[in-house]
Amino acid sequence: MSAARLIAALAAALVLLPGLAAGTTPAGGRLEGRLPDNTPVVSIDQPRGTILDALSAIARQTGWSLVVTAPESATTRPLILQVSRRPADEVLDLVLEAGSLRASFADGVLRVRPDTTAPGASWRERRQERRGRHGSDRVAFGQSINVGADETVDKAVAIGGSVTIAGHVRYDAVAIGGSVTLLPGARVEGDAVAIGGAVSVSEGATLEGDNVSRGGAVPTTIGSMVRLIVGRRPHMASMFGFASRMMRAVLLFVIALLIAVAFPGALTRVEAYLVNRPGVSALAGVAILLGFVPFCVLLAATFIGIPLIPVAVMLLVTLFLFGFTVSAAWLGERMPVGQEPKTPVKSVALGGAVLVVAGLLPWFGTAALVLVAAISAGATLLSRFGRTAAVAV
User: Fold this and answer.
1) Largest Cα–Cα distance of the chain, in whole Å?
2) C-beta contacts of 236-245 below 8 A and 24+ residues apart
3) How confident is the model at residue 223 (pLDDT cuts 50, 70, 90)?
4) What does pTM read for this prediction?
5) How many independent structural domains does the chain possess?
6) Pairing of strands 155-159, 137-141
7) pLDDT computed for residue 232 by the predictor
8) Is residue 256 domain-shared with residue 353, that is, in the same domain?
9) What is the Cα–Cα distance from 101 to 81, expressed in whole angstroms?
């Protein structure tokens, strides 16, 4: 073979090799592992649904087991999908791309996780996965927790949510107002505790500690209240965000009026404490905001402290409701409406109306209400609900 022919052959090989290599890899590269040779075809007619609905349909038609550790922000994205008798791997890749997800397949189990390398992946998700892989405490307030199959955490604690584990938890998994679920392959070295829910251990999962479930109306109600106050579902918020804020504002206004009617003396004394000690009250309020979740984590570290977490949540809700009422009374007394002296109920009605209207503003309104209630909640706690008087200095 002449040198010219040899060079031409090598050039042709260089041109063809990338195309051949691309043809041997899955489309999009979102699936790791080899699917069965006899991959079935699937048909999906989904005019309305989510990414998770499509994944469930694929798993149901193929007979695969499905484990999803991606956050709700990815799996609840709306997805319209209509395919007829297409190979399951092609449809799966379409769904994974739509949700910015990745998947692995082994032993008949399809595991779906977030694509943390995608440009659209949020920095919060990337930080959470980095922390999870190296081990840390995973704590959520008003949301559920998912520990992925390739993640290892020290503790998993959800207050007002559930805990789903597909990976490794070195110590305890605790859910207050929710359930604890161990998926196949999961391992928990400590206890699995669900207050207001149930503990479910799937076949193939390992629970080395105790299985503790404590049902009852109080823990379940607390979990529902926490999810109502701070829970977030993107697809629902877009439809009912304002209506939900309006409902919460009306409920908050009514509760404040009831507190003013039932405890006018205590309300007046806490307001006086707030006026005389504003700085200390503000510091106490900030301490309540920043210290509540770590305090619950400390309680969850001991078996005796776990039943006290619902009590702590109830105390927090009471403090903030009373604090909101105190702030409303303080604001109402300073409003230039009428000449006659204002009663506690009238002051709360005037100030509460202004605060709940301000609370309807998206983002800023809720943050402002929480901050205002926290400062007065600090005065409520320090004065022991008006039992301790403050002396102005």
Assistant:
1) 111
2) 241/362, 242/360, 245/359, 245/360, 245/362, 245/365, 245/366
3) low
4) 0.48
5) 3
6) parallel
7) 46
8) yes
9) 16
